[in-house]
Amino acid sequence: MASNKKYWKSVEELNENSSIVETLRNNEFVEPIPVDQFLGDKETLSASSTTRRDFLKYVGFSTAAASLAACEGPVVKSIPYVVQPEEIIPGVADYYATTMADGFDFANILIKTREGRPIKVENNNLEGAKTGANARVHASVLSLYDGLRLKQPKIAGKDATWADVNTKVKASLEDAKAKGGNVVVLTNTMASPSTDALIASLVAKYPTTKHVVYDAVSESNALDAFQAVYGVRALANYDFSKANTIVSVGADFLGDWQGGGFDAGYAQGRIPKNGMMSKHIQIEANMSLAGANADVRIPLNVAAQKQALVKIYNIVTGAAVSTSKIEKYDEAVVKAAKQLKAAGSKGVFVTGLDDVNAQLLALAINNALQSEAFNPSDAILTRKGDAKAVAQLVADMKAGKVHTLIMNGVNPAYTLANSKDFVAALKSVKLSVAFSMKEDETSSLTTIAAAAPHYLESWGDVAITRSNYSIMQPTIRPLFNTKQFQEALLTWTDNTVAYYDFLKSFSAASLAGKSWNQAVHDGFVASEASPLAATSADYAGAASALAQAKSNNFDLVLYTKVGMGDGQQANNPWLQEFPDPITRVSWDNYVTISKADADKGGFKNWNVANGGLNGSYATIKVGNATLENVPVVIQPGQAKGTLGLAFGYGKKLGLKEEMQVGVNAYALYANLNSNQSATITVANGEHEFACVQLQKTLMGRGDIVKETTLEVFNTQKAEIWNPVPMVSLDHKPTATTEVDLWDSFDRSTGHHFNLSIDLNACTGCGACVIACHAENNVPVVGKSEIRRSRDMHWLRIDRYYSSQDTFAGDIEFKDGSAGLMNSIDTFASMEDPSENPQVAFQPVMCQHCNHAPCETVCPVAATSHGREGQNHMAYNRCVGTRYCANNCPYKVRRFNWFLYNKNSEFDYHMNDDLGRMVINPDVNVRSRGVMEKCSMCIQMTQAVKLKAKREGREVGKDEFQTACSAACSSGAMKFGDINNSESDVAKLVESDRMYHLLEHIGTKPNVMYHVKVRNDK
């Protein structure tokens, strides 16, 4: 029987006279498909030699398609391939080698693309690659899709064409040449031989042109010292895997010191092998990543650090420069110096003191040791800035001596301490040009704002070290009307060749026998660096000058966070929400101060009812510069009499309102020196921090972070330093691993995945956190939600301090308590960290328990266990009871309190079409009311199995990866199949150092940890 029921899609259809209903009924597409925008005309298309870089002419999902929303109905437009490129297989990722080079971060990387969209950064693991992508490098793919990018050039604030720009610049250059006016090209360190050649061509054509290199975060003193000794403006390179004893004075070599990238070598020496591991002694003011990982940490102010450096120089070289006694730590410094000397060629010394004399002594000490880890010949070329030349430029501009100023990759109106002088002087320059991705503090003031492309849209070459020549290739066509600086240089010198052709021709001399195609495929060419010989320098004079150092007021030590760096990516929400590894604070910078100084000065931190951290404000003065309303964090381990403050925050222009956070530390960066004398006073008000970890100390819970000393590790059985928890079974003590309430399944058939985390190798850098964000479409929730403990990170890195001087002391103190009241008093006192605590980092994600407590309490079976050891989440089954989160002992499940995708209340990358281009199509974007957590990257394990099946082979022994294990350059994380006895992870399961987190509760996780061993000899 036929039904007379009427079905309708919307209330509007009930209105018979509605024009909208009639339009939608008759038109499949509300708007005509804009084919011309994608394909161009017939002649252009037929003349095109189609390459991968041109595939967006044929690909359907492009920026233009994404941004054209239907005006009358919810139409999502997909344009099919006209001619499908051979390289593109829908649903299969392609990887392209390129080089990240933004003037601060440099790395050989791979870019994962899906249907033409770059969506993720991976490490380039070919031998010889300068890899080790940090958190900022991993996050840089999101900066490609920044909706506030400069989309076309502007002249005097108005949209212009590139022809207009070139005409105006060439006219100014000719005018300067005719009148003898000075032309200055101000760039960051591009480390690009081809660009240097193009600038040289500009100088040849316009002889009054001068090139000045300006690094926002300067290494000028270290460069001056190296140049004085070795004759090359570069920085010494180090391989910490070759060192048995490492002594550092103020150098955070696990952070951004000299460009970073040293953690992989360092971690190799930190994993105990054959009873041996390296010894690391850190002397510093701020608690840094290097200090947090050190065996011995000595907190000293800057003047005392200089005294310590002279003492080490005296003992290692036999010099006799008189020094002052270092209060409290003199013996410890002398002991460190003697251990360094005893290590001989297996010792290495580094310093981050921003003083040319200190840098000279570092070179002298390593040469005296004949250190194998010290490698001046393969010098680092990614820092070339000259602080003196920059100061002279500002003086010349103020004096009206600069006719034309051309800038690329710099933002001096934000990064110069005397930015007001620069801005005022800019008005006396006849023509100013700024190549920039943003309409920032500088490009908004210049005559011409030249829209620059992202590095993923660019060709280029980069000499990272003297042995590494790298190629940068585009992985997508330019999204906007942008031009590379190099293309402009070619135009201005009347060179009609395209930059790609120029680069290909120019690079021939540097390819060391490789073909151009092979170099592009690999991303770099490695060669042997010619040796550099040291010349004599006045080391005694340098030591005498350092020995006179004294501290007045507070020593302010300016530094870069591993999340924000120099601030170029301040509009990147992944990095803003990235918790600092030490303080665990996101969405902020702040001044760090010791507890003793805080108590004396009246500064406080406290927790409020919702769990958020609050703190005092401070006013900091350096010379005539004042920085107001600086939030204060009381930092365990901060040297007395010192302050720490991070660069990269306080930007206002070119950022969404949500990202305009923090204070501008560059205002205190006088003479581009990171060590300043400062005063600090309490200011009115209280600051609300977004801190993801309230628990500061481990409080003696040795079953969470297990650690021991090298001596105990070598002399005692594993059950002493890695005990298995015991329970009572039939009134007999029995290991928890032998007791089971569950019926176990046979897991020996097929794959069974485990993740291994070595606490000795984990430096806490956080690259894995951002890689997980990118791979798994983890949403950004913003500062307000973070304060409510609603962060969505699938992977967190817990940081614990010792409440006594050592974690071993914590356990003794805890075990010494007796009775209820004494235990309460003991634990209350253990909440406060030591003045100079030991630190432990522990990455924690879903443990994928074989006996998972979350699975038994889910009323709708949304979470269940897979045969391969992964704990699954079926999002469309989840009804948001959150029972699983309550029952999880590891607290790793994340609940979507809101819809974070396409929601203007959360105006981050998922709220605009351009930002959503970074989304990984292999992973669902979760909705409101759904629980989510680490999936052990099941989409990656499935892709590996399908690839092997298609190729008719077995999966390789270490072919399986997760986002975090692939991103971990230190090797702390290893992922694989324990049913393959040849895999690394199968061998790690058998290690004496292996344990499971909270092993006594019997969840039998598939994530394992390895006992942390400290070298306390």
Structure notes:
With 1017 residues, the protein is of the alpha/beta class. It has 33 helices and 41 strands. It has a seven-stranded mixed beta sheet with strand order 5-4-16-15-14-6-7, sandwiched between helices. Strands 20-26-22-25-24-27 form a six-stranded mixed barrel. The protein has a four-stranded parallel beta sheet with strand order 11-10-9-12. Helix 7 packs parallel to helix 17, helix 11 packs parallel to helix 13 and helix 13 packs across helix 20.
Which short descriptors sum up this protein?
1017 residues; alpha/beta; seven-stranded mixed sheet; six-stranded mixed beta barrel; globular
List the uncertain runs: 55-73
In percent terms, what proportion of residues is strand?
Answer: 15-25%
Q: Classify the helix fraction into a percent range.
A: 25-40%
Q: Determine the number of helices (DSSP H or I, runs of at least 4 residues).
A: 33
